[in-house]
Amino acid sequence: MKYTTMTATALALVLGTGAYAETLKWARSGDALTLDPHAQNEGVTVAVMHQMMEPLLIRDPSGELVPGLATEWSVSPENPDVWNFKLREGVKFHDGADFTAEDVVFSFERALSEQSDMKGIISSIASVEAVNDYEVNITTKGANPILPATLPNIFVIDKGWAEANDVVGVQDVEGGEETYASLNVNGTGPYKLVSRENDVKTVMTINEDYWGKDEFPMVYTDIEFTPIQNQATRMAALLSGEVDFIQDVPVQDLERIKSTDGMKVLTAPQNRVIFFGLNVADELVGGNVDGKNPLQDIRVREAMNIAVNREAIQQVVMRGQSQPAGVIMPPFVNGWTEALDQYPEYDIEKAKALMEEAGYGDGFSITLNCPNDRYVNDEAICQAAVGMMAQIGIDVNLEALPKAQHFPLVNGLSTDMYMLGWGIPSYDSEYIFNFLYHTKGDLYGAWNGTRYSNEKIDEMTQAIASEVDLEKRNAMIAEMWEIAKADTVYLPIHHQVLNWAMKDSVGAAMDSDDQVKVKYFTID
Amino acid sequence: MIAYILRRVFQSALVLLIVGLVAFSMFRFVGDPVENMLGQERTQEDVDRLRDQLGLNDPFPVQYWTFLSRAAQGEFGISYRQGRDVADIIAERLPATLELAAVSGMLALVFGIGLGVFTAIRKDGWVSSTIMSVSLIGVSLPTFLIGILLIWIFSVELDMLPSFGRGDTVDLGGWTTGFLTESGLKALILPAITLGLYQMTLIMRLVRAEMLEVLRQDYIRFARARGLREKSVNFRHALKNTLVPVITVTGLQLGSIIAFAIITETVFQWPGVGLLFINAIQFVDIPVMAAYLMLISVMFVGINLIVDLLYFAIDPRLRVDGGAGGH
């Protein structure tokens, strides 16, 4: 009897403190490139930094903007170009320094500097000023109604720490020296850096002084992040229990994990849509067909759109792990409607008739450029498309290359048909029009490889950027999508689906940006 | 003799230059590093600025010359991917690869010679036939498959050994070693077997063939006729005489163990220079690729140079005609 009581007490102690020493062993395919918050705008890098540093506004796992280092934000009533942010008081950096407005001003100036990789997202910002210790004003170049949506990846670091360690500027790779900030962190985030070995392991421990310690579950006291590049090894590490949680789960292994005792898979739509772009310029890179570019004919583009069997790609190539798309915009982005995402019914006869009507009954040949190491099953999707296009007489020559060779083709306008995937960090249509539909130029249309140029779209893209009347703005966006969809310069394929695999005990909070915010995780 | 050595050193330097040239001319086909270094929102201006800063717009002979002149001063630049000094990264990664290669080499040598002798002496036994058949697997299966197979058996099914990484390491003044911790030693087993299996079967088959040859010689028969014990005949008389070609092959294989480590390191997420190189290729991290290739070629050229000098020491004929003889 006595012993049972003792055991029970011991058990209670263990359980009580047990929650106190839970380590999350987390693996994904790549490592963070740096810990300098403004040096690399790259998925894994940003995901790792989100555990240790914080932006003014955070996107919670459901995609909603919630207070981070700022508690309230609003447009100034006097001037639509100015946003006012009230900052959280009593927050401390990991080294104990107080968080104040000067740190925000400093971090934004750093993020806007020439060497920063983050300046593109916040290019609408003209200046940032401290009003007092806990209030800042951000002035934009012209009104920007969606400024808050551009802030969740702009991290704030301590000004004093940066000055003391000579990392006021963002690391310049060619500048010669490695910097203190690429290996060390002083943020306000829920976890603190313990140690980091590049490409091997990054260890973090809970920040006991975190402002949100009681607000969020924060059940894990330690995080061990390990990159495991080989997908079979990553799977084996999870199945053997060496890690608790993996991202980048190969689609062919999902069933295997689901059927393993004590393991589960979580699935969510990803913020990434996959599509083909078509060259609609006067000249084809690969040479014109009878002196013309057949892709300029809307009937040909429509025929190609109809000939893409999206359901077959979903079933066969993606093993169900995708959602066929009718528009190049993920479902949670502002501007998305179910009607827009309707894709045309696969109908070879109709497509052939359109080709015939356009005068290409005998078809033509074209080269499809495709990455082979960027998106889920990218090359396999292209191979499937080759067969589908052949059915309407288009002889597609597939060229699959690593991303480092593929993207220069798209940006150098040296491809007639190419695959691209697009994620929308601001969750707003403007981002898509800005980069993919606006006529390619210095400021806009940076990723428009189609040569598509529509004056109306260009005008409206620039107009919605500063339209403060949200209702009017949304009406404009709807109108733009109607034009864009009718012009069919992109053939949407599908929305990617995210899969995370983990032990049953891990209560992961999935987000569409594949970012992982451990403070929201629970233990089941 | 000095003239001979000088000439060999000069030839080695020339080989290095050519390797560097070929490597550099290939980098342009790997892709554009700027695409990986800048985010989705970059402007054309950013691209141009970065290309210019990195010297990617320079003609390729200029790029090569810049690299050479810096490398000669021991400067390999900053990794595009990690933003850290390339020499530091390689120095940090090299111990992992060298320890793995050393253990695999030892495994290959010990088991290769042992099993080779055994299968030669008992050449008709069923155990020998089994070993010989199984050794075919080592020669014919690709390394990554063996690695994944071993992970599946020993990590997932039996739960005995780790499937990835190097375990805990101890830092001995810049050299991190996995030899001093239990997890470090455990982590070494599977990658070392994977990496050494091919060399082991190669040495085993070589030793076996040589042994069979030697065992037919007259002096072995005489040794037996003299009534010497079997053990003494096999090991003192026979094995000793088979070792010359084995040592030659082992020396040559040493380089390829380090080079083959790329695949093994990728499968086991072993943090050595091979994995570093693979990552560098995917990211088009030119400074790391260039430094790695130079390192490997220095190593190969170095080994060959030593071998040549050894020949020189061993073969008196080379000395007579001033080293004109080839081999």
The CATH superfamily title of the largest domain in chain B: MetI-like
CATH 2nd-level architecture of the largest domain in chain A: 3-Layer(aba) Sandwich
Task: Determine the strand fraction of chain A and express it as a percent band.
Answer: 15-25%
Determine the most extensive contact between two protein chains: A-B, 58 and 57 residues
**Which overall shape of chain B is indicated by the principal axes computed on the Cα atoms?**
globular
What is the number of helices of chain A? 14
CATH class of the largest domain in chain B: Mainly Alpha
How many β-strand runs of chain A? 19
How much is the average pLDDT of chain B?
A: 85
- Tell me the CATH architecture of the largest domain in chain B: Orthogonal Bundle
List low-confidence stretches of chain B.
322-327
What would you call the structural class of chain A?
alpha+beta
Distance between the termini of chain B: 17 Å
Mean pLDDT of chain A: 91
Helix content of chain A: 25-40%
What class would the helix/strand composition of chain B place it in?
Answer: mainly alpha
Descriptive labels:
heterodimer, A: 524 residues, alpha+beta, D-Maltodextrin-Binding Protein, domain 2, Dipeptide-binding Protein, domain 3, 2 domains, 11-stranded mixed beta sheet, 4-stranded antiparallel beta sheet, 14 helices, 19 strands, 28% helix, globular, disordered N terminus, B: 327 residues, mainly alpha, MetI-like fold, two-stranded antiparallel sheet, disordered C terminus
Characterization of this structure:
The complex is a heterodimer of chains A (524) and B (327). Chain A is an alpha+beta fold and 524 residues long. Chain A has two domains: 8-244 and 505-523, 3-Layer(aba) Sandwich (D-Maltodextrin-Binding Protein, domain 2); 272-496, Roll (Dipeptide-binding Protein, domain 3), CATH 3.10.105.10. Chain A contains 14 helices and 19 strands. Chain A has helices at 2-18, 43-52, 101-112, 159-164, 231-239, 254-258, 298-307, 310-317, 348-357, 378-390, 403-411, 429-437, 455-464, 470-487; strands at residues 23-28, 57-59, 65-67, 70-75, 82-87, 125-132, 135-140, 191-197, 201-206, 222-227, 245-246, 263-278, 322-324, 364-371, 394-401, 417-422, 490-503, 506-507, 522-523. In chain A, the strands form four sheets. In chain A, strands 1, 8, 9, 10, 11, 12, 13, 14, 15, 16 and 17 form an eleven-stranded mixed sheet that branches. In chain A, α7 (298-307) runs antiparallel to α9 and α12 packs antiparallel against α13. The relative contact order of chain A is 0.14. The model of chain A is unreliable at 1-19 (pLDDT under 50). Chain B is mainly α. Chain B has two domains: 2-72, no CATH class; 90-282, MetI-like fold (Orthogonal Bundle). Helices cover 76% and strands 2% of the residues of chain B. Chain B has helices spanning 2-30, 33-37, 44-54, 60-72, 86-121, 126-140, 143-157, 182-215, 218-225, 230-268, 273-283, 286-314, 316-320, and strands at 170-172, 175-177. A two-stranded antiparallel sheet of chain B has the order 1-2. In chain B, α10 (230-268) runs parallel beside α11 (273-283). In chain B, 37% of the residues are buried. Mean pLDDT of chain B is 85; it is low at 322-327.
